[in-house]
Amino acid sequence: MNEQLQELERKARRAKSATRKLACLPTATKNGALRAIAAALRDTREPVLEANREDYEEARASGMSESMLDRLLLTSSRIESMADDVLTVAALPDPIGQTFGSRTLPNGLQLAKRRVPLGVIAAIYESRPNVTIDISSLCLKSGNATILRGGKEALRSNKVLVTIVQDACRVAGVPDGAVEFIESTDHALVGQLLRMRQYVDLVIPRGRAELIRLVADNATMAVVTGGIGVCHAYVDKSADLDMALRIVDNAKVQRPTVCNALDCVLVHRDVADAFLPRLAGLWQSEGVEMRCDTEVLALLGDSAGRGTVAATEEDWGREFLALVAAVKVVGSLDEALEHIERYGSGHSEAIVTEDYSSANRFVAEADAACVYVNASTRFTDGSQFGLGAEIGISTQKFHARGPMALEEITSYKWVALGTGQIRE
Fold it and tell me: Is the pLDDT of residue 89 over 80?
């Protein structure tokens, strides 16, 4: 164990030492490394897929849940998407060195903010090997060093992916230590890493609620938490019901195992008779279980089929990560907003409405990182937002919110240019 702790210390120290050079690294060098990573993902995908197959089979045999298995799985198309996202990051403007907020004081002193990297970002994550590439690429472009600590269920996949990243960095001329990977899966190392505030400037946990709580409760450095998504869609009385059906179905079914998938549908009483039987019929054919309040159950009656059951109190405010959704009838926009305030997680909320004032009220009053009008919550994603990737989805209000990409993992310094001014 002492040897593993010493190795962790060496890697953390190496990452910290790399930060000064990374902060000044030319954009061309960073983009060259990113393009090399994308090319290697495409050219050497078979070793990645083979390692992932071994991880997946072992995880399935251990009884891992379907939602976690889906997050673990890599396919040829998913690797292609990972490579595309890396190239998108390479094509984005380099935030480092950008100046903003310039002004001249009455004494002639010129002030401006200049964007700089945060320093060393540690990522502790579970199951999703694509996070290895997402975080590495964003940290490279933003001039941050990163320390990666994935879960044991994806160890083989992560090792191959980190090798791709580190080889590309070496060839491109990126300083050693820019991307460090903790291979040991000993949980004690996580606690040690969380105490290394002399090396680590920010830690981002990605995974189950238990992991996020562990990191938030024990970290001695700044933490950005998020990722737990209890997402609602409210079908207003003025909604286009065809549109509402498409949006609600997409938000639940397109990929139910991720944090931006729909968990609860709120339907205005005035359109419940017209909307809910259509939704029940569609979801019955797709295998979605509806956990309904008493009014929904009474409305659907015997036509609902086996996929409709009574909701319990635990179903409101629950992230299902499966083909399950809670369904409730509400009497007003106010009631919908009150439900979201009570049970929402601050991730993503949607309204389907043709009423401008209702849309405006929902946007203003729904307290979430991402609020949608007439669109699916499934768009809460760095790639979908045109950011290339995300280092995480923050449900906090400080310092970043929603998908975190390049600007969200930078800070700034004040730069003052004078001509001999002194303070009287």
Answer: yes
Q: Residue 219 has what pLDDT?
A: 96
Q: How confident is the model at residue 201 (pLDDT cuts 50, 70, 90)?
A: very high
Question: pLDDT digit string (tens) for 384-415?
Answer: 998 888 888 998 887 788 999 999 999 999 99
Q: Where are the domains of the chain?
A: 2-225+396-417, 231-379
Q: Domain 2-225+396-417 is in which class?
A: alpha beta
End-to-end CA distance of the chain: 58
Nearest of 204, 225, 169, 157 to residue 33 by alpha carbon: 169
Query: Which amino acid, residue 376?
Result: S
Taking CA atoms, 33 is separated from 40, 119, 165, in Å, by 10, 19, 8
Instruction: Write the class of the CATH domain 231-379.
Output: alpha beta
* Amino acid at the residue 132: T
How far apart, in whole angstroms, are the C-alpha atoms of residue 241 and residue 96?
46
Q: What is the mean pLDDT of residues 158-163?
A: 98
Q: How far is CA 309 from CA 290, 293, 306, 316, in A?
A: 6, 9, 8, 14
Return the structure tokens found at 351.
Answer: 């309204």
232 and 401 Cβ atoms separated by less than 8 Å = no
CA dihedral 247, 359, 347, 80 (to 10 degrees): 40
List the single range of 157-166, 222-231, 326-335 with lowest mean pLDDT. 222-231
Report d(CA 278, CA 373) in Å as an integer.
21
Burial class (CB in 10 A: 0-12, 13-18, 19+), 37: buried
